[in-house]
Amino acid sequence: MSPTDRNVPRPIPPSIIQVLPAEPLLLMGAGPVPVPAEVARAGGLVINHLGDTMNMVVDGVKEMARYVFQTRDDKIYGISGPASAAMEMAMGSLLWPGRKVLVLKLGTFSNRFAQMAGGVGAQVDLLEVPDDEPVRAEQVEQKLAQGKYDVVTTVQGETSCGVWTRELPQIAGLAHQAGALMVVDAVCTLSTMPLRKDDWGIDVVFTGSQKGLSSLPGVALIAFSDAAWEALQQHPGPKPHWCLDPVRAQHFWGEHTYHYTAPVTGLLALYEALRLICEETLEQRFARHRHSALALQAGVEGMGLKLAIAAEHRLNSVLAIQIPQGADGARARRYMAERFKVQISESYGRNIVRIGQMGEQCRSPNLFRTLHALGVAFSREGAKLDLSRGMAELEAHLIAHAAGVL
Ligand SMILES: Cc1ncc(COP(=O)(O)O)c(C=O)c1O
Q: Which of 80, 84, 214 to mutate to test the pocket of ligand 1 (most atoms within 8 A of CB)?
């Protein structure tokens, strides 16, 4: 064998323009979501990761994140990574062998807390509810009466099934009364519906950039209360993480010194995404999300499809729709993408498809395009649907409730 034969052959890949479809898909799934032009522009820039300009970006992100989380916390960090990295930072810093966590499990993402907590050697107890049900405060109260926990975790919205933890404020109150820290995943809900970190007594809350905030994927945000900060100082070591150690993150986010090279483009994009939220105001943004989601629900039901989750604990930011009997959900989704360039999500083993209502997804042209594509795709699968009635219901809701909002 000659030396040349031993070389790994040089690939000749297509350019990224050739890889991407000629017409981009409209991202109407469970995230990532479309981004505003300002965010896309900011995400195309690179600046140095340290220095005066970056310091202004960092301070701006923290100040705007305080508004979005509704907190006065000092310890707020952007993390280079997905939302799961923020979850990992919380679990890896607050838990260690000998510590005990109660995980409220209603689906895939709430269960991820248990996997991570187990991974750092904590004792994990699950409070598990049946499919499509929320965790209720009463159940948490009973569980907390039976044992002592250092941490309680939950999701505000469970993306995998479309269930909303409506009783989150009460659950956080109960955790506090029981002397536990409350950790909340607001990944698919932040800035789409009210969340009041300080008023509700949440100790740690985190989100990703690619959902409600409508920014580029790859940067997560997390906030720690003073009590959580105090608890994580007690970590006996060795610490399981280096990048995801909040004490080290404080070097960059608190003192403007080096921790690791920050995700510069992602932070510039996030700055713009947060600025647009401040400009819109949370109140207006919640109203836009609510009416967009309700209009879409009216349209889906109006054409004869069934929503998977009961109205009282239905998540507005991720809508779960039952796949009609005899229809092939994967084929319907593929048809929507190929024919109408609209992409929605599959489920995690459930008989549903999911449509996102986060950030830029909540714009009326996107609603009409998605609902129409959904109706055509499932009609083609044999479902008996009244597409015109569905479109009319969508329009009627928007006219009645969403003037000046959407
Ligand atoms: C509620 C929830 N938590 C956590 C995650 C994990 O986010 P990521 O994929 O960015 O790690 C997701 C992603 O869909 C989510 O919806």
A: 84
